[in-house]
Amino acid sequence: MKNIMTRSIAAATLALLTYGAQAAPTVLVVGTDNSGGSTTDIAAWLMASSQFSSVTALDTISVSFATMSAYDEVLFFTNHGGDPVGNGDALASFASTGRRLVVSTFSYAEQGGNTLGGAFISGGYSPFTSIGSSLYTSASMGSNDASALFTGVSTLSNYYRDNVVAAAGATLNASYDDGVALVATKGNVIGINVFPDDSFAGVSGDHRQLFVNALSVPAVPEPESYAMLLAGLGLVGVAVRRRRQPAEPLAV
Question: Which residues, in sequence order, are CB contacts of 139 under 8 Å at separation 6+?
Fold first, then answer.
């Protein structure tokens, strides 16, 4: 009986660890051709949130899957240029690992090399679908689904936005007050229609907290994780009930 109890507790402990006890993630912030801006500043204010064990900034034109795979999570955005197909293929490979990927403006710009393509779009990983060139008009957050993504996010106004809607199979989490999609999720990929480098101004309110939340809010466990949790807890319950049963009388 003692061995049963030990194995039951071990199974439940493993299930609970699988369910939620995660180390603070490492994050890579990738900005393509972000000249005149500061990708480093984004990494700094993310790190200042104390939600991550490390945050690394990378200014580049093309990022590889090998580079991203060294991190738990990636925040990707584009500015003046980039490698649409190469970056899109690399992002799709990263997304397929199940790790958190946040993609933001101008990834859907439809104005040149900064617009994502490749497997990220054709393979159905993207939470947004572009319906035109980027918008350069101010709008405020009009509605959101009150999920954990919006904890501490009460106001948000923004000028640099892409003209997007939620993609097929994605969940629309928030919209601007003019109806343009603000946040959408598709599996482990989160789209945020905000240019994250606020050194260019154009954005105000709780946008930083929104990005922190997108990278730090735990994902919903997969069905297998739920099964492990329930199975482990069930074994504990069985063992406890058996232990509480009165001992059988000795034969006479």
Answer: 157, 158, 161, 176, 177, 178, 180
pLDDT digits (tens, 9 = 90+) for 47-80: 999 999 999 999 999 999 999 999 999 999 999 9
**67's torsion region: left (phi>0), alpha (psi -120 to 50) or beta?**
alpha
Domain residue spans in the chain? 1-20+221-245, 23-220
DSSP state of 54: E
pTM of the model: 0.81
CA–CA distance, 68 with 127 (Å, rounded to integer): 19
Tens of pLDDT, residues 172-212: 999 999 999 999 999 999 999 999 999 999 999 999 999 99
Query: In 105-219, where do the E strands start and end?
Result: 128-144, 156-166, 171-176, 181-186, 189-192, 203-205
Contact 166, 127 (CB under 8 A): yes
Q: How far is CA 38 from CA 19, 42, 134, 203, in A?
A: 36, 7, 21, 15
Determine phi and psi for 54, rounding to 5 degrees: -160, 150
Task: For domain 23-220, give the CATH number.
Answer: 3.40.50.880
Residue 221, token pair as written in the block: 């466990």
